[in-house]
Specification:
With 243 residues, the chain is α+β, with helices and mostly antiparallel strands. The protein has nine helices and eleven strands.
Amino acid sequence: MTFLTDSDQAALRQEPPGLELLRYWCRVGARTDETCHKLLSYMVSGLVGRGWVQTIDKILDSAVDTLDEPRPRLERALYQLVQADLVVLDGLKVLAMAGLFSTRPTGCVLAVQGDHTVHLLGPMAALAATVALRRTGEVRATCKRDPKRRIVLGCDETGVHTREPEGVCLFLPAWDGVRAPSFAMAEGGLFADDDALGHWQEEHGDPPGMPVASQMFPMAAADLGLQLGRGLEALLKHLPDFD
């Protein structure tokens, strides 16, 4: 499956390596209608509220009453969401949602204040998740190169505002427009310091993407987190839980 048209591919090549996924997620809302946004909001709300999700058939069954939408319309919306990679399925199991959340362990989690801990798809999701949800929370991760080293980011609806350790940095993977966006999101990582990031890049043959050193982390985290979070917020604000 390719997620981009030829014109999209051409535009993608103009983006700095590492920012292609951000642009994709920010634009994808225009390709999905309000029913899609309501269903996606409903699914993400269930994940954050419970810490797990039902199978997709049960989600659709309950969404019919909760969202007051006929099932055929919800099924069409689900098809659009899957085509955009905003929902990733394995049979009836939901694997990922909204370009941010995973139902399987990823080594990076968001503990939402007053709700449950959910798995995040990667470093860009770590910067944007609380902005998209308009919630306060704490991202807890392990260093991509040394899993024994812990990383904690304090986040709210404006993005990351604290970090531990102070040397936290990250790597955002480049995206070719062919691999599933959700899969590509998980290929980067958070690092405890610049040395860990540099060694990881060397060990992986200097992969294409955008390294963000610790000195630049506060500025980049604020800018990228707001861009992606505000872009996805438009898809996740269709229930009272998100107001």
